[in-house]
Amino acid sequence: MLRITLKSVRGHFVRFLLTAFAVMVGTGFVAGTFVLSDSIRATLDGLFNQASKGVDVVVRGTETGAAGQASSGRAALSLDLEKQLAAVPGVKRVVPDLQGTALIAGKDGTAVRSGGAPGLGFFWDPQGQSFTLLDGRGPTKAGEVAVEKRTLELSGLAVGDTTQAVIGEHRQSVTIVGEVKFGAGTTFGATAVLVDAQTARTLFAPDGRVGDFQLEAADGTSEATLRAAVAKVLPADAEAITVTDFNEENQEALGTALGFITTFLLAFAGIALFVGAFIIYNTFAMIVAQRTRELALLRAVGASRPQVRRVVLGEAFVVGLVGSAVGIGFGVLVAAGAKAALRSFVGIDLSSDLPVDALTVATSLVVGTVVTMVGAYIPARRAARIAPVAAMRDDLSIPAKGLRLRGTLGLSGLAVGAGLVVTGVTRDDIAWLLVGPGALLVVLGAIVAAPVIARPVIRVVAAPFAATLGVVGRLARENALRVPRRTATTASALMIGLALISALGVVAQSTKASVADLVAQEIRSDFVLSAGGGVAVPTSVGPAVAALPGVQSVADAVGFGVRSSDGEDLGASAGTAKGLGDNFDITMRSGSLDAIDRGEIIVNGDTAAEQGWTTGSKVSLAVGALGQKEYTVGGVYAPMQILATDIVVGEDLFEAAVPAAQRFNQGVFVKAAPGADLTALRAALVAEVKQFLVVSVEDGEEFQSTAAAGVNIILGILYALLLFSVVIAVLGIINTLALSVFERTREIGLLRAVGLRRRQLSGMITIEAVTTALFGALLGTALGVGLGVALQRGLKNQGLELLAIPWSTILVVLAASAFVGVMAAVLPTVRAVRLDILKAIATE
What we know:
This protein is of the alpha+beta class.
């Protein structure tokens, strides 16, 4: 039976090759995900191991604020602690964590950036092991810097050149005196500038506070011993941890933060494999139908049902194994593309190679092979049921069962799934868990019911062709209707990809509309200052522009962590009553916005309801790096998107809670004074922020366009990945048409014999392909728009206030689907028109 299986694969090589390609794409994403994950893990290992060279114990502040917020969530430590730590027995050296933000201007005068990665500043430590000097020397005084190798390459400058730099909050002219290399080979995409120790103390710790101290143990002292000795002398707001545990914590935290990449790629792997399963099923179903007599002869000469089933599954095994093996190579390309995308769009630079280990190979082979065999299982069962007497019959087809039960099941699943989605998006909390299963049930229901839906829809889609092209159009329509199961299965592959594209289009268009509405309804500012790409705006920008003539007030977009007395993490923002009131349309439900200037807090209405807080309540909070203290709720404001944090505090409390080096400002909103010349004010703002290198000035429309551009970039990446599922669907149409042409060889010969010209035959097959593609497109678009609308309604409270349908995108999708049908018909048409008429008529 093994020889029969291999011979069958060779005999249907081209058909199985198309099927193997579908398997390859799906397993390629699986393999690529594992390869990229291994590369990220290796890079992180090297990064943390190198950064901790020469360090045995880390002394840091105890955790007080909310983890994962803009601030560290830990108490800042005074630099005065350095002397006390140095006096502990067993301590060889103490190094304060003097680092912050730093950017240099390149040869073109603009800030050196690497995607959206930050610009980091460190102090040059001649005894440190993290950075290695490649050229020149380390900085020893103010005005001198050493620059990391890749940062220097991006700048177009060289050692000895003079340029501008923003170090911490200050712009200054600097001379590049050295080129350094980070020992791990990468700073994970961040640019890096090193300054002398005194400058670092002045600019990175202006308030005399740092995040931690790194301790090197004396010879003969272990990490654990040193940690225990240091812990005895620490104040209550500090703790000691071995560098091994410190690195593990950081790796776990950063790995979790980047885990979305793995989830993201695996989701597309699942989509590709799911779509590919339709091609696998269709291919094997049609081949089994065409080989009825061959399989019946096997049964007649003594093959048992299990043996026949094993022949078909054996073919699937070979196809799946070959497709998966090739998919591993494709996966390396996927990982390389993802690696390049991370570097270009996010700024993350992975230094490690793209490792392909045994687990990746085994997983890819198993997944691809199993999916192929699952897709071929139903056709294999049908093949095993063929009676030996079928070899002596002229009717070689396997009769199809009625569609009534299938239609009932499919439409029922569609209705139940829609109900779950509606329930999930209209209810809160746990009900959201219903959306995923509901959406999946909707798609599965549509797939199951598709053969029933196919007949009426295809008649409508094909009506213009039948009316304008006469016999050719009617023949194409009847061919598409002849086997509705086959047509529906072929179209379903395209349906899935286009449903996802349509749903994403609705969400993206709604996001853009909601951002435009946000700018119009909630923002009163005349200008917005931002750095873009997730890069922080220096906190000194706000005070600098506030002093300009024509500026009424400013509001900084700062965020930090808050923890309630019961341990719940909350988010907070800060500002002055005038700055927030002038720049944002804040509706106070109770209390006064002025409360924040008195040291009180105001609370988001939703948070107040959840916590049971009202104006006048006394609440215990750990704000930023401060310990638990009692605060008075001075007011409750109506929920809004621009102030989506849980609480708002005054600037004085913010400055006390968050160390200067840990403050993160996402932007500055500027309100012009009444009667101010906006053109002149903009020119003044541009001139003022030029010194900060990365800060740009935008009005409301430009701010809206920038937000929309970010959505378009994400959407472009998603569309590019979903395009793979569409490519698989096109292969499915090609495969189905090719097998259909083979199946109808005698019919085509008879049509040619009675006068059907080659051009008419070509048109008939093309119309059949276009009809199938449009059926899948219409079904997919309808499902996608429905799911997109449901998602928008469910995310209404998260910022997607407005529903917007991308009608232009939908029209493009439908037109592209028709083009897909034309392209898919090319190869089958070429084979059909080349058939010898007499041989075709004689075909059994």
